[in-house]
Each structure stands twice: as structure tokens, then as C-alpha cells.
Amino acid sequence: GNSVTQMEGPVTLSEEAFLTINCTYTATGYPSLFWYVQYPGEGLQLLLKATKADDKGSNKGFEATYRKETTSFHLEKGSVQVSDSAVYFCALTGSSNTGKLIFGQGTTLQVKP
Amino acid sequence: EPEVTQTPSHQVTQMGQEVILRCVPISNHLYFYWYRQILGQKVEFLVSFYNNEISEKSEIFDDQFSVERPDGSNFTLKIRSTKLEDSAMYFCASSENGQGGTEAFFGQGTRLTVV
């Protein structure tokens, strides 16, 4: 079945450091890929998405490219801020047409000043 | 900005009791979902709901769970006889449609503690 694997956390970085959070997936067909973010005390919010191979999603300085050849959707940001501290979830929707999301286990990012 | 709202934010219940978790999805959305996250584990899909019926459910969603849209605005998850292992954060979500690339909007969650 479909699944998503994320790098284990927590990830601790200093402000202005470069961020990569790895995400790989297993899916049949052509899934859509997402990064959701959960700030402390809040619900999950869509950060970015990509719906086909080689698409790049971007938002708030974060980027991720849909790589079908490596089944990956790694999240990157060139210079993190303290306000980026949150839990990041990689997810996919498959071909079911119900909108069901399959999530990775989440990666906690802590950015120190 | 429209948002999904969930109540209560925290519910404590005794094992064997019934609980109802409530959600108000975004008003023009047609698909509704429940997910749960046991502490330290993945966010897991429970059920999707469209056109007043379940469109997909996971193996977690057994006979003790049910969902309902009792009126034009609320969407509820009922757990008939709670178990200790039902303790988790429950998230409601909604989306405009069920197509693969469509964004789902999530509520802030209800933390259910079964004692």
C-alpha cells in the first residue's frame, strides 16, 4: 500500500541555517505530495504541495521538488528563523478520489536564536 | 479566513463511556475527514465522508466508530465504548473536493484522554 517515510527528528538548528527534511514515499500510480506544518497549539496547515513529477512547491521560503525517479519530496529552506519551529509532516494522496491523506511520522524542527 | 473548528479542545472520559467529538467544517466544502494521532505516532486516516455517506474508511474505523452530519454545519465522530487505546488527538478536516491535489483544511484537534 501507499506509505510515507520521513527523517527522524528532532532537528535542531541555529537561526539562518540551511534546512533539509527528507521524505520518501511508496505509492502506486501518480500521487500528489504535500508538506503540512503544525505550529505549537495549532492544527495542521498546508505549507506547499506538488501534483506531478518535477513540480516544485514553494511557500514562505520553503521548497520541495516532486522527484519520481527517487520517490522523494524533500523539504528545504535556505535560512530558517525561530518562527519556523514546528512539526513538519510529509503526506500524499493516492488515486482513491476521496482525498484521503497518508502522513509520514512528522519531524520536529527547533530553531535556536 | 474560513476555518475548521473543533470542540471540545480536550475531553476526558472513563473507559467504556461514549464520546462525541464535534467539528464544523468550512461551509462550502463537500468532503469531510477524521484523522487521529496517538502521542508520538503518525497522523492516521480514519474516515472520509461525502454526500452524507462514508466514502472511505480505514481498518481502525471499526464498529465502535461512527460519523454523522446531523445538520448543515456539524460533522461528528462518535466512539461508542471508549478504550484506553483510543486516547489520542483527533483532527477533523474538510476539502472542496476529493481530487488528489486538493488542500485539506484541518481543525486544531480534540485531545481525547480515556482513563
Number of strand elements of chain A: 12
Helix content of chain A: under 10%
Rg of chain A, please?
Answer: 14 Å
For this entry, what is the oligomeric state of its chains?
heterodimer
- Structural class computed from helices and strand pairing of chain B: mainly beta
Count of separate DSSP helical elements of chain B:
0
Largest sheet of chain A: 6 strands, mixed
Cα distance spanning the termini of chain B: 37 Å
- The overall average pLDDT of chain A, rounded, is 94
Description:
- The complex is a heterodimer of chains A (113) and B (115).
- With 113 residues, chain A is mainly β.
- Chain A contains no helices and 12 strands.
- In chain A, strands 2, 5, 6, 10, 11 and 12 form a 6-stranded mixed β-sheet that branches. Chain A has a 4-stranded antiparallel β-sheet with strand order 3-9-8-7, with no helix packed on it. A two-stranded antiparallel ribbon of chain A has the order 1-4.
- Chain A is globular, with a radius of gyration of 14 Å.
- The mean pLDDT of chain A is 94.
- With 115 residues, chain B is mainly β.
- Helices cover 0% and strands 50% of the residues of chain B.
- In chain B, the strands form 2 sheets. In chain B, strands 2, 4, 5, 6, 9, 10 and 11 form a 7-stranded mixed β-sheet that branches.
- Classes of the chains: A mainly beta (113), B mainly beta (115).
- The interface between A and B is medium-sized, with 29 and 29 residues.
